[in-house]
Amino acid sequence: MDNFAFISLGSNMGDRESFLKKAIDSLGNNENIIIEKLSSIYETDPIGYTDQDCFLNMVVQIKTGLSPIELLRVCLNIEEEIGRVRGFRWGPRVIDLDILLYNDENIEMESLQVPHPRLQERAFVIVPLLEINRSIKLPTTNAPLAEVLDEIPDKEGVRLWKQINGEDAYALFES
Ligand SMILES: Nc1ncnc2c1ncn2[C@@H]1O[C@H](COP(=O)(O)OP(=O)(O)OP(=O)(O)O)[C@@H](O)[C@H]1O
Ligand SMILES: Nc1nc2c(c(=O)[nH]1)N=C(CO)CN2
Prior knowledge:
Number of strands: 8
Largest sheet: 6 strands, antiparallel
Bound molecules: adenosine-5'-triphosphate, 2-amino-6-hydroxymethyl-7,8-dihydro-3H-pteridin-4-one
Shape: globular
Oligomer: single chain
Distance between the termini: 26 Å
Mean pLDDT: 93
CATH topology: Alpha-Beta Plaits
Number of helices: 5
CATH architecture: 2-Layer Sandwich
């Protein structure tokens, strides 16, 4: 498990928290993934396509023996398992898993770009990421993420919804 990665989770349909929990359970049940940290859960105004319900968003930090492409495959399988039906771009979804960062790598494949190409525009991703690690820098430009957040206008659309500390993290994993 020599690699670290950050994965963002989002849901804006049905029992949103239960879908986040299911996704985290599935990640943790993978023998090649260790969940290291969970952010709190944030309720966030929809970005991109705005005529839809608010999202719950959070970020997890993992250690993994999987390659980036293998990790993407795992994420897509979890989305499918939980029942995501692909609708239109940026539209409502029961669960969305995105790979934000994988080590300090810059990956430019057709099916996978890391850092996630829209990471820098999305307060709903950066706020939970900074909660886990204040000193993260973007591998592309070396810019501290805290400075990137300063430049984003939509920060007030990201509200703490459920604080997760050690104890809550355990409760979130309890079935
Ligand atoms: N870093 C990444 N993490 C997850 N998927 C990625 C990444 N880079 C590229 N992709 C590709 O994006 C495809 C579509 O992803 P998805 O349907 O979740 O997009 P979206 O959530 O609607 O929009 P966005 O990418 O802006 O979050 C995936 O099948 C995957 O191949
Ligand atoms: N607030 C918020 N807005 C979004 C989200 C999301 O997770 N949270 N995901 C999207 C598609 O990737 C589009 N818009």
